[in-house]
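Researcher: For the record, we're logging two predictions in this thread. I'll number them. Prediction 1 follows.
Model: Prediction 1, sequence and structure:
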Amino acid sequence: QLQLVESGGGLVQPGESLTLSCAASGFTLHHHATGWFRQAPGKEREEVVCTGGSSIFYSDSVKGRFTVSRDTAKNTEFLLMTNLTPEDTAVYYCAAEGRCGSTEDIWGFWGQGARVTVSS
């Protein structure tokens, strides 16, 4: 079965860090472009990180604080989020087989979402 499974969401305080995981099954994750999106309460889903080939693109809102890495042996991608603020509160989604900056319907696979809440 082709799917992405996310884990690692939770509640953290401002300034803390959190790592999300996105594990792929049924296909090789690093052979495809991947994206991380988030949807804050009452807002549209936005792309915050995208990998394409050997390049990684970060949105201005997360640049310098979020980092993507991969464990190809585990077919898993990680999103390390540091110095979190309440504005980072959202449901985070990983996606694969798409194109950076494209509309959501272009992406072939989506994780189920991981809720991240940043609050003191």
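Researcher: Logged. Prediction 2.
Model: Prediction 2, sequence and structure:
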Amino acid sequence: QVQLVESGGGLVQSGGSLRLSCTASGSIWSINTMGWYRQAPGSQRELVAVSTSGGDINYADSVKGRFTISRDNAKNTAALQMNSLKPEDTAVYYCNLRTRRVLGSWVDYWGQGTQVTVSS
């Protein structure tokens, strides 16, 4: 079993910055991705940024150039630095870890979510 603990959300004015952190513990196989998703009221959960154990990184178009994901594989931690925040970034942000054995299926784990509110 894997547990994810998030921290770092809050209220910030438009143009401000926040940093989210996520720490994973438990049985994590070497093939994995860690990332951040968000869900605004009335909307579906969407990918924000993801980093693979192989070093690949992807961002949603809406956050490119403003958000930066980083991870420490040895410590099983991931962080999301969010700069130039906009009101439309307001959402609950969830840390995600996806992992699998070499010939196995992907298994998803989620953090509890942290609220990010950007005021105009």
